[in-house]
């Protein structure tokens, strides 16, 4: 009797093994995307909008199910409005991805009254750019040197107070006692550029090299933020190097760290681990794809230097562990 039972058990082993393999295969194929919407926290025409539309043309090829991807603009507060939507009301099934400012990673520390959320709750997918940012002015403004930029009375345009266009302008204004005033309320860099062309404002801060590649002849590059250089661009003075106070310079360096993951994509908290992993994997495959890189070359002089979602999460976590006194100084620096 025992022999019969043993033989039956042996015959069942292949079927059991096959069932396990089938189940594992089914689990591996469980993530499949349909239509995805990339929501952009800025208005049409600016850098975040352009890169999001670029990504939308290619990303689906690297995701299970090869989904169609559409883009929707949700401007407001330098992407703070969209960030709050992602943390509160957007679906967590991978059908919505958000293109938000990298400044959202420390917005709750610098502006806790308006940005009352946990940056670590955001699921970071990846970012395209890791390079310095600029302050620039229209040549028609007459503000064409560092000295004039710091000592003249004029207007700088920005989106919202949680955006890089405001934060980096405020860093210069407060850290170096500049005299310019910051005007907020623009939907994106395209609107700021239009206001510069009209002579309504003189310039803006916190923009990357590809934002200026199409109209370089009409702009003055004044100085930079962040470490490193941009290939083919003149070497400029780094604003934070001009700050004399050691504590203030340390706070400025903290703020500049977000330039390591410029133009990030995020998904809501609660998005399944397998979905996040599929998006992260597909993103890093996309940024190495020759067709994608060729399309980037048609758009601008942007150099793709991607940061993975895992690395962004580690950087954000590291940021939030900084000495509270440094955060306090940074908070005062960008008021």
What share of the residues lie within helices? 40-55%
Oligomeric description of these chains: single chain
Count the domains.
Answer: 2
Average pLDDT number: 87
CATH topology of the largest domain: D-Maltodextrin-Binding Protein, domain 2
Any idea of the CATH class of the largest domain?
A: Alpha Beta
| Elements, N to C (H/E) | HEHEHEHEEHEHEHEEHEHHEHH
CATH H-tier superfamily of the largest domain: Bordetella uptake gene, domain 1
The profile of the biggest β sheet is: 6 strands, mixed
The side-by-side strand order for the widest beta sheet comes to 2-1-3-10-4-11
- Gyration radius, in Å: 23 Å
Structural class: alpha/beta
Keywords for this entry:
alpha/beta; 6-stranded mixed beta sheet; D-Maltodextrin-Binding Protein, domain 2; 16% strand; 12 helices; 335 residues; 3-stranded antiparallel beta sheet; 40% helix; globular; 11 strands
Overview of this protein structure:
The protein has 335 residues and is an alpha/beta fold. The chain folds into two domains: 36-128 and 261-324, Bordetella uptake gene, domain 1 (D-Maltodextrin-Binding Protein, domain 2, 3-Layer(aba) Sandwich); 133-257, 3-Layer(aba) Sandwich (D-Maltodextrin-Binding Protein, domain 2). 40% of the residues lie in helices and 16% in strands. The strands form three sheets. A six-stranded mixed β-sheet has the order 2-1-3-10-4-11, sandwiched between helices. Strands 8-5-9 form a three-stranded antiparallel β-sheet. Strands 6-7 form a two-stranded parallel ribbon. It starts with a helix and ends with a helix. The model is unreliable at 1-10 and 12-28 (pLDDT under 50).
């Amino acid at each position: 009797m025992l022999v019969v039972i043993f033989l039956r058990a042996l015959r069942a082993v292949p079927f059991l093994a096959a069932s396990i393999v089938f189940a594992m295969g089914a689990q591996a194929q469980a993530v499949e995307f349909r239509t995805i919407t990339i929501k952009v926290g800025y208005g049409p025409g600016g850098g975040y909008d352009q890169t999001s539309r670029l990504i939308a043309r290619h990303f689906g090829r690297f995701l299970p199910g090869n989904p169609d991807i559409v883009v929707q603009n949700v401007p407001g507060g330098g992407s703070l409005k969209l960030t709050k939507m992602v943390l509160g009301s957007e679906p967590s099934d991978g059908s919505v991805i958000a293109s938000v400012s990298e400044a959202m990673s420390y917005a709750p520390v610098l502006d806790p009254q308006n940005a009352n959320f946990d940056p670590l709750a955001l699921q970071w997918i990846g970012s395209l750019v890791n390079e310095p940012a600029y302050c620039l002015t229209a040549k028609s403004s007459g503000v064409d040197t560092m000295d004039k930029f710091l000592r003249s009375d004029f207007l700088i345009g920005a989106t919202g107070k949680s955006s890089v266009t405001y934060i980096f302008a405020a860093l210069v204004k407060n850290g170096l006692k500049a005299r310019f005033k910051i005007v907020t309320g623009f939907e994106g860099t395209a609107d700021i550029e239009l206001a510069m062309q009209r002579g309504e404002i003189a310039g803006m801060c916190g923009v990357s090299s590809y934002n200026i590649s199409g109209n370089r002849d009409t702009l003055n590059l004044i100085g930079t933020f962040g470490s490193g250089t941009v290939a083919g661009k003149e070497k400029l003075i780094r604003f934070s190097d001009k700050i004399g106070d050691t504590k203030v310079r340390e706070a400025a360096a903290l703020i500049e760290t977000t330039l390591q993951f410029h133009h990030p994509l995020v998904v809501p908290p609660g998005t399944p681990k397998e979905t996040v992993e599929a998006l992260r994997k597909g993103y890093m495959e996309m940024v190495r794809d020759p067709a994608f890189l060729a399309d980037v070359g048609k758009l601008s002089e942007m150099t793709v230097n991607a940061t993975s979602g895992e690395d962004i999460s580690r950087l954000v976590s590291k940021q939030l562990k900084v000495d509270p006194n440094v955060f306090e100084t940074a908070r005062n620096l960008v008021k």
